[in-house]
Each structure stands twice: as C-alpha cells, then as structure tokens.
Amino acid sequence: MADDKKLNRRDFIQNSMRTTLGIAVVGLGGLSMLRSKGENWVWQIDPFKCTWCGRCATSCVMTPSAVKCVNAYDLCGYCDLCTGYFKNGVKDLNTGAENLVCPTSAIVRKFIEEPYFQFDIVEKLCIGCGKCVKGCTQFGNGSFILQIRHDRCKNCNECAIARMCPSDAIKRVPANTPYMIKSDFIRK
Amino acid sequence: MNKRPIIIFLLLMAAIIVFVIYKDLISKRPENRSVNPYEYDVVKYKSVDSAMVRYKEAQVISLNTRAPRGLAYANRKLYIASDSLLQVITVDGKEVNRAKLPASPSCITVTDQSIFIGFNDFIAAFDLNGKMTGRWKPLGKKTLITSLAVKDNLLFAADAGSRKVHRYSTDGKYLGVFDGKSAKDSKHGFIIPSPYFDVAFNHDGELWIANTGKRALEQYYDNGTFRTFWSNDEVGIEGFWGCCNPAHFTFLPDGSFVTSEKNNVRIKVYKPSGALDCVVAPSEKFPNEELAPALATTPEGDIYALDFQKKEIRLFQHK
User: Fold this and answer.
1) Mutate to test the interface with B, among A60, A88, A141 (most CBs of B within 10 A)
2) What is the ipTM of this complex?
3) Which end of chain B has a smaller Cβ tally under 10 Å, C or N?
4) Looking at the complex, does the CB of residue A78 fall below 8 Å from at least one CB of chain B?
C-alpha cells in the first residue's frame, strides 16, 4: 500500500510542469492586470531641451498646433522691456504690432504697478511658433516655455512634432504629471 | 554559369540603396527641413567686429569645485567662494588655502586684512587665513545677498530678494538700508527681476550699483542718496539688453567699467563716461553659457572672469 503512494518519476515531472504552468499563467495574468491599472503616458516638451525651432507650429496634426506658449510666472521678471513680447531693438515700448515678436498678438501685456507688467498668453491665438520663447530665453529670464496642451492634444501614438523635433525635446511623461514647467523642475 | 547568386546579390544591393535613400529623405537633417516661417533671428545681435575685441584669453584655471559662487582678487591671490568652501589660489592656479564655510556662499569681497562672504541672508567676516571672525545677524527670509563692496570701514551688501542695499560697518554694525529711489515720491527704486544685483566701489571711492531692470549703472553717495547714472538700452554691442544686465561689473584702475552680461554672455569695457570702450570677450567665447561670469580685476588691468558653468577662472589680458 505504501508503495502505491510512492511518487514515481513520471508523476513528479507531470506535477512539476503543471505547477510551473500554473505559476506562469497566474503571473502573466497579474502582470497584465497591473499594467492595465498602471499610469498612462502623454507627450510633453522638455523646456530645457527645446530650441524654439518653430516646428511645433507646422508639424502638429492639429491646426492650430496643440503646442502653446506658457508663462511660468514664478520665473517671470514682469519687465517693462519683455524680450519675449517686444522685438529686439525697439525704441518705444508700446503695443504697436510692428514692435511685437508674436505673429498673432497672442500675448497680452497688463500693467501691474510702475514699472512692472504681467504677460498672459491667449491660448486661442497662440500657434506654438516659439518666437516669444526664443526671445525670452535668449535675452530674459526664460519664463516663456512651449508646452503641449492636453485639452487639445490627440496623444497620437507617434507624435508628429516629436518626429520632427531636431533636439529630441519631446518625450512621453506620466499622464498624472503631464506638464514640465521650468520652475517646478530643474535642468538635469 | 549559375546567375542566381548574382541576381540575388544585385537585388539585395538595390534594396539597401533604396532603404538608405528613403532613410535619408525622412531624416531630420537640417537640409531636409523646409524653411521655418517663424524663424526669429537673434544671431545677428551676437556678432562683434573683431577690431573691437582688444583683449585675449591668456590663461584658464580649472576649479576643483562643484558650484563656484563668487570671485575676488586681492594680495596677488584669487579668492573663490564655492560649495561650502573658501578657496585661495595663486595666479598660477595653485591652491594655497581652503577653509570650510558655515553655509553655501553667494558672493565674496576681500580687503588687505579681511575676507567678507555673503550667504543667502547673512554676512560673515574671515581673516586672510580663512578663520571666521564674525557672523552677522541674518537679515530676514526675503533676503538674497548677491554682492558686497567695502570702502574703509563701510560695507555695502546688495540684497536682490528685497531689492535694497544694506549698509554696515566692517565690524558688523548695521547702519541702515536704501532702496534706490531718487526722490521720496519716486515710484520705484532698484528693479531686480532676477538674482543679479551687483555693487562696487571704483578707485575714487564712489559707490556704483547695477540697477539691472533698468539696464543702468547708478552712483550713490555713501548715505544712499542717488547721485547719477548712465544706461544704454541697445541690443547691439554698444549697450545692455533684456532682463537683468549688466549682471556683474567691476572697475579697471583707470575708472573704466568692466561689465558682464547674462544670456547673451559677453564682457565689455566702458569708459568712465559710460561710452563703450572695447570688448573683452564676445559671445562666441561663451558658446554654451548663459550665466554672466563674475569679474575681478588686478592693479595691472588684467580681468579675471569666473565661468560658473565651465567651473573655470579665465584670464583676459590686453592684446
């Protein structure tokens, strides 16, 4: 009787294979569940890598582009002579179109107190060309940055502007932290 | 003769050629891209007539430090405040002293007898061996001390956080503060949009302060009364442009101003009248830098520039 209960080699191998298969199935199922519950990813522009080439305005599948200028107010100097707002070399700091960097007048200059001005972006007008960002970064504090706005981004599988970006500044970021504002993180 | 291998080889080669041409067509090479209709050309503002550059880079001293913060020249030595260290090096680049500091420094100035180091919200005095002789009372949470200047027994500390200049005696007694308003009803005094706020005495003992938001250099009496200023809002080489320039300045023995600018980084010499004299180092000397170098001059007229990003001290001498 004792001999009948003794595990022979064939049974041992069969049991081992069943156990291994079971662990693999349960493991794969668990992993799939974890992945399905894991975070989503969205496209975003690293402002420290961006070279303001203007491709965001022309390469995005959206018209106008889903890329917009954002002012990181923490960094803004509220300057009267804002180099993201005024063209280089202007003599009179007035809001005449010939003095402005923005081709669509998407930046509003609002007086705060002498001599400080606040600069707000009208997203409806902004086409994401990055001219203001270049002016601000090259001559000012660099508070203007380009960001992909997720209320309009289609989150394409292969982002058209990421493909064209000459500085590989566009990358996937977790959807729960979808923006990369300069004042919130520092250059790596 | 069996031609099949040759045909396969030729087909394979043709496929490779087609693939390479295709990859080249879709590559992101600059030549492959269409003209950018939104190009904003700022390069033209960085070019300088080479005849204006009258200094040459004569020496580079690499610093063994993580984060240099301030530079001073005195007693034929260079004093560098960095990390949490005070380093003293000879003009040959040999370190002769190193002392630990109580916090991360923000600026430094040196006299014949003492070293004064500004930290974010307080100042400390040291003897020339690096031993701390006094730690002065902190100025408050909004304070960010960015520059110090000493004349006789007076010390002036530029505070970019509160946009004011504090006045001390060199033994640490607080004497007062001024905000740069030229009159009581002036709407503003110092305009400091970023932490660049420099103060220095020229060789005649006149106090000069960089009002960077107005791109101006302003002179004050020792009691804080505004006296005069000069400025030049000009994007070209003649003036200062953008936010917060001149970020740093100092004086040559003849009273000329030596200025350094941030973003479009360049070092220039202005005559005591404020007219541009010459260029020390054009933007091309700082191709990847955006921080304005701190400056120090020698009695011989040499100019030392602390390149914060390369962690180097660069010596510029007249050609």
Assistant:
1) A88
2) 0.80
3) N
4) yes
B233/A137 touch (CB, cutoff 8 Å), yes or no: no
pLDDT in tens, chain B (319 residues): 678 889 999 999 999 999 998 887 776 665 666 778 888 888 888 889 999 999 999 999 999 898 999 999 999 999 999 988 999 999 999 999 999 999 999 999 999 999 999 999 999 999 999 999 999 999 988 999 999 999 999 999 999 999 999 999 999 999 999 999 988 888 889 999 999 999 999 999 999 999 999 999 999 999 999 999 999 888 889 999 988 899 999 999 999 999 999 988 999 999 999 999 999 999 999 988 889 999 999 999 999 999 999 999 999 999 9
Taking CB atoms and an 8 Å cut-off, how many pairs form between chains A and B?
84
Instruction: Give the residue among A134, A170, A141 at the shortest CA–CA distance from A155.
Output: A170
What is the H or E stretch that residue A34 is in? helix A9-37
Task: Please give the domain boundaries of chain B with CATH numbers for all domains.
Answer: 48-318 (2.120.10.30)
> Touching check for A73 and chain B: CB below 8 Å?
no
Q: Which helix (H) or strand (E) holds B134?
A: strand B132-135
Nearest to B264 among A78, A81, A139 (CB): A139
Separation between Cα atoms, residue A59 and residue A133, nearest integer Å: 18
Cross-chain Cβ contact B38/A115 below 8 Å? no
Give all strands of the β-sheet with B132-135 in edge-to-edge order: B105-110, B114-119, B123-127, B132-135
**Every domain of chain A and the residues it spans:** 2-37, 41-184
Q: Which residue type is seen at B24?
A: D
Q: Contacts of residue B241 in chain A, CB cutoff 8 Å?
A: 83, 88, 139
